[in-house]
Amino acid sequence: MSLYECVPNFSEGRDAARVQRLAAAARAVAGVTVLDVESDAAHHRSVITLVGAGEPLLDAVFQMMTVATREIDLTKHHGEHPRMGATDVVPFVPLGDSTMADAVRLAERLAARVGKELEIPVYLYAAAARRPERADLAKVREGQFEGIRETIGTDPTRAPDFGPAKVHPTAGAVAIGARPVLIAYNAYLTTPDVSVAKRIAKAVRARDGGLPEVKALGFEIPDRHRAQVSMNLTDYRKTPIHRALEAVRREAQRYGVGIEESEIVGLVPEDALFDAAEYYLQLHGFRRDAVLERRVRAVEAAAKGGETLAGFTDRLAARTPTPGGGSAAAASGALAGALGEMVLAYSIDPKAPDAALAEIRDALTAGRRRFLSLVVEDSAAYESVRSARRARKDRPGDAPTEAAYLTAVRGAAAVPLETARLAQELAVRLESIRGRTKLALASDLVTALALFRAATEGALANVATNLDDLRAAGAPTAEVEAELARLRPKG
Predict the structure, then answer these.
(1) What are the residue ranges spanned by the domains of the chain?
(2) How far is CA 299 from CA 292, 296, 302, 476, in A?
């Protein structure tokens, strides 16, 4: 089942009962879960995070928008945050095996329904944008409710993608789109001077030459007697939370102010928090698979029969460095071993088992289990290299850091080397009994051998990449090179 996150933003942050009615409309739809509800009175805005499959999620969001259209009057709305609609923005975020193209199609379908049934003009934005300038939400919302109300019917650049060419009298307009995971992150300054917050926001946001994938605005938060730098981190791998925070801190120091505290609005990927923890705790050799809860989850998954193939391929397809080619090579070896076991299970006579065939079957069973461990070990080894590389960049020339980096790279080479060695050994043994297996299983045997070759070649390519890193660091590589040459297919 393809899942999506949806994070509709509503122009209501002060009436708790109304916010709960918005959330209740989503909770009433089977197959949709409300993960989080965040409200801010100063911004007069609520962010509600949902997750579900496409059809139920579409219905849930539409029901929420119906409530918002009925209950929120923008002609009486005033808050710090820019807004154009009662339901201001609706982003769909693909999860798991769903794709951005799938999310765009959901956005388009919701837009068509909202335009027709609620008579609200809809602008498609981000990945769903039909005009290049509308990829930027700030451009879509320019002028806010009042400005759009004046120009939508006369300015062709303000024509909506769906719905009437006039704003809804009280619910305004809405932006609906698709995007990757976004982190909403705010920093409160030790001053109420909003002009300082605005100058800092301009310095750190991407469109004015600041940090990549950062959108930022400065706001006054009267009830706290503080100014706030409000940021959207649209790709936390390009600009992680800690880098955004430190950039704000440096700019604030120019004006003699500091950061009192910061906050995350809505949900956040756990890896984004690990990034910040590694930075502030100076965990230069930290391995994320050493986190207790991650280990427990792995044990629980194993107890339930392990991760599904669909789950593994979802992670493999994601825009993350792990799992990668080394893990895929080991997974190919596991599949090859399992298929070889099946061939032998049918080829061994249970009444008079052939000892040699049984021995090879047992070797394939043990090999399959080892390959599954290597899938995990390859990802962990690469994460160790990433951590060591960051530490090396932070402390160039530091002897212990250099030694830790070499250890990590050697480990990253050792894992795929074992994958290649084991795959080749089992392939030779399986090939040796080709004539003693059942003819009806010939295609299965061929597939198993092909998977072993894929595991070997993929793993060796991984080793070669790590060899380049070892050479660049001036480490001896003769032993690994000799093993690489031995394992490479001849001819």
Answers:
(1) 3-178, 183-268, 288-487
(2) 11, 5, 5, 37
Which tens digit of pLDDT belongs to each residue from 320-370?
788 889 999 999 999 999 999 999 989 888 888 888 898 999 999 999 988
Tens digits of residue pLDDT in 373-408: 888 888 888 888 888 888 888 888 888 888 888 888
Q: Element (H or E) spanning 186, and its range?
A: strand 183-189
CA distance 310 to 315: 9
Dihedral sign of CA atoms 234, 235, 238, 243 in order: positive
User: What six digits make up the tokens of 300?
Assistant: 């629980």
CATH architecture of 288-487: Up-down Bundle (1.20)
CATH number for the domain formed by residue range(s) 183-268:
3.30.70.670
d(CA 424, CA 485): 13
Q: 81 an active-site residue?
A: yes
* Annotated active-site residue in 43, 44, 77, 81: 81
State pTM to two decimals. Answer: 0.58
Q: Does domain 3-178 have CATH number 3.30.990.10?
A: yes
